[in-house]
Amino acid sequence: MPPFSRTRRRNRKPRPPDERGVTASRSTHRPRLSSGISKKRSCQRRGLSASCRHDRLSALTDDLLLLILQRVDTRTALGTATLSKRWACLPRCLDALDFRVSDILPARYYECIRIRGEAAHFPYERPCHHREGFHALSSLVLEDLPRSTPTAAYEAIFTLCPQLQALHLKSCMLNHSVMAIHAPKSEIKQLIMEDCWFGLIELHTLPMLESLAVVQTDVSYKFSSFPYLTHLNITFRRGILKTRFFHVKNDHDLNEHLGGTPVITNLIISFTGYDRWFKPWSSTLLFPKLRRLLVADVPSSWDVSWPRLLIEAAPCLESLHIHIAPWEEEPRDDISWQPPEFCHNQLKELVIIGFQGTERQIYFVNFVIKVSMSLQLVSLYRNGYVQDKGRWDWDIVTQQYQWLNEEKVKILNQIADSAPCAATPIQVVLE
After folding, report:
1. Basic residues composition bias: which ranges (predicted)?
2. Confidence band of 249 (pLDDT split at 50, 70, 90)
3. What is the pTM of this model?
4. What is the three-class DSSP state of 187?
């Protein structure tokens, strides 16, 4: 065949496109499509810029714009500064700015207030129809419940939650009523009652209870009802007002708070007030298994020797920690003790935080040294504090203090004059 000429190639009928031709055509059309999209986007941008150029509001004079801003709230007026450079300097020319907290708070704040208000007016007397949902509950914290909460709602917790093991009542108002707890089938092992005012809680039966914390709450109980109770934390204050609008009697019996504790091993006591409000003796007080004792927040105006009755009631006590809190008033109301007629066989450690070397403090240290046959260490720290490890454990944190040599020698000599019962030498640390 003769070679194809350029003329015949032009007059040639187009062949039907095969797959290779289709692929080629697609590849050649892609840049055209992308260029069309880019042209469309550029047209949109030109339209937006054109609309910005035709912003008639921004074209007004400053005086007219300021008149507009004066008729809106301050938050909106300041927000216009973000529109453009044209508006940026206008809020600075306003004569007055009215700032309100309600204008700054976000919308979620008001939503939270609304939800809280609905919860406060919730009809607690409405019965719960789906009680089976609480069968697997093991831990529960109730906080800030109002006085409108019926007493029966609290009492039902101990019976409607058979698997409940830890219960914490905090700042729950009791509406001047008596809440009686009688739950022989309860599995509760930890119970904390903290700042529950305007009522009385009576604990009758909680057979599995192991740890109990009572903080500023009127509670009536008999420890014989808790056969497994080993950890106890009692915090109570009376007459803490310096002005003393009424006289606080000091004839309360400690048996009301501590009586009948046969199996307690760890005990934390914090009794405070401007006046000692309890009797420093009790003929029936007994802690037969107590091992560790913390007497916290003892006011410096009290006779610090009052824990002596606890030592006499705890024959198995091994560690005694006392924290003395600074108080504004002068020491007074010394306790008249009878000469000791016993020796303690188990006490090994005495730690006092806030020790200042006063007469009653030295008297108490000498008493412990005299009656303790197994005492090994007496640590007296001027500065320090008690660090809580939960509700029923603690650590002593000491801080360095530089005693004057004369003071230190005088205190150590007064302590050395006591005749200890211990057969081995006692280490005395004064820092």
Report:
1. 1-14, 27-39
2. low
3. 0.68
4. coil
